[in-house]
Design goal:
CATH topology: L-arginine/glycine Amidinotransferase, Chain A
Helix content: 10-25%
CATH superfamily: L-arginine/glycine Amidinotransferase, Chain A
Shape: globular
Order of helices and strands: EHEHEHEHEEHHEEEHEEEEHEEEHEHE
Number of domains: 1
Structural class: alpha/beta
Radius of gyration: 19 Å
Distance between the termini: 39 Å
Strand order of the largest sheet: 4-3-2-18
Number of strands: 18
CATH architecture: 5-stranded Propeller
């Protein structure tokens, strides 16, 4: 079952409500959280964390699991050319994984079920003076849609190994569900947060806690779509901050009224065009076209150019076999990230599972 196939056996697709939300743990220590913030992704990293897909419950097809592991290894080996990479995995997976991973990729025996380190991995925050902590978003398998006995403990176990404090955000959610510009502005789809499968709280309280968790002051909400995929439409597959005040969004050529993804994407675009950041300045919004002639012809396939990962000196992005849009995406990324090498990979097996390169990675900032 992919992250998008989940919709086939569940409730109908609905646009997220704007007034109610759901509910995680207790409100974290707001005094302790106040001085911490999550740096923007393009700032220097100490290392990248990734997770090894290992669970046969999640991935029952042995042959596809092997292909998926090879793709995750390819991403890790590529990132490792630019910065250190740590792969988290069950100890039983180490021997086979070592044959696929470059020698520069470090393995930590922290058990995992699946590969989505952006969501279940550690979200690092800093106080700007060298102190580092982990903001706990209380991953619950995207609203208890997938087993997460190990993935739900990844952030805590990484913190223990690094000797870092864990600051409870008081919300339930995932790192892929929110974008930060590192200077006070967050962007998210309500469907991933204001949702009873995660938080039993009113929207304004979820916003307050999420801002506190990542050290920001302004939230830009777009509705998103609840129930259309396992993530309830994570923002990082549609729109990303490329710098403070700048956003990149992927759009099809026109709105398809019969396609809820298309309608929701343009709704988010309209909101971004009208929004201002924390400083009160209008956002600069760049658009990358949605690929059409791709290798994988499957309605559940995620072909997102914006689900790239920014590491030290490079942007690791996906290509999908549409030569025109692949070239345009690479051109835009070169323009938006000057001085960085753009590396485009075929990560189709990850797209078949409903995600991309950004979903599979999580940065530890250099402080």
């Amino acid at each position: 079952m992919t992250r998008r196939e989940f919709l086939g056996s569940t409730a109908a697709v609905t646009f997220a409500p704007a007034a109610f939300a759901s509910g995680g743990g207790a409100d974290g220590d707001s005094t302790e959280r106040a001085s911490f913030y999550m740096p923007e992704e393009s700032l220097p990293h100490l290392r990248t964390f990734m997770q090894w897909p290992a669970s046969r419950t999640v991935h029952p097809d042995r042959q596809f699991l092997r292909i998926l592991q090879e793709t995750i290894a390819d991403i890790a080996n590529t990132v490792a050319e630019f910065e250190p990479v740590v792969m988290l995995m069950p100890q039983a997976s180490e021997e086979a994984a070592r044959r696929l991973l470059a020698g520069t990729v470090e393995i930590w025996p922290i058990p995992t079920e699946d590969l989505w380190c952006r969501d279940s991995g550690p979200v690092f925050v800093t106080d700007g003076s060298g102190d580092l902590a982990i903001s706990q978003l209380n991953f619950n398998g995207w609203g208890n849609k997938q087993v997460h006995a190990n993935d739900g403990l990844v952030a805590q176990r990484v913190a223990e190994r690094l000797g870092l404090r864990v600051i409870d955000s008081g919300v339930v959610g995932e790192g892929g569900g929110v974008e930060t510009d590192g200077e006070g502005t967050l962007l998210a789809h309500e469907s991933s947060w204001v949702n009873p499968n995660r938080n039993d709280l009113p929207k304004h309280e979820i916003e307050r806690r999420l801002l506190g968790a990542l050290g920001a002051d302004k939230m830009i909400w777009a509705p998103g779509i609840a129930g259309a995929d396992i993530t309830d439409y994570h923002i990082d597959s549609l729109a990303r901050f490329t710098a403070p005040g700048k956003v990149l969004i992927q759009l099809p050529q026109a709105v398809d009224p019969e396609d809820p993804w298309s309608a929701a994407a343009f709704e988010t675009y309209d909101i971004l065009r009208a929004a201002t950041d924390m400083s009160g300045q209008p956002l600069e919004v760049a658009v990358v076209p949605e690929p059409v002639g791709i290798r994988v012809e499957d309605d559940e396939f995620v072909a997102s150019y914006v689900n790239y990962y920014v590491c030290n000196g490079a942007v690791i992005a996906a290509e999908f076999g549409d030569s025109e849009t692949d070239s345009e995406a690479e051109r835009l990324l070169k323009e938006l990230y000057p001085g960085r090498e753009i590396v485009s990979l075929n990560v189709d097996p990850v797209g078949e599972m409903g995600g991309g390169i950004h979903c599979a990675t999580q940065q530890q900032p250099l402080v």
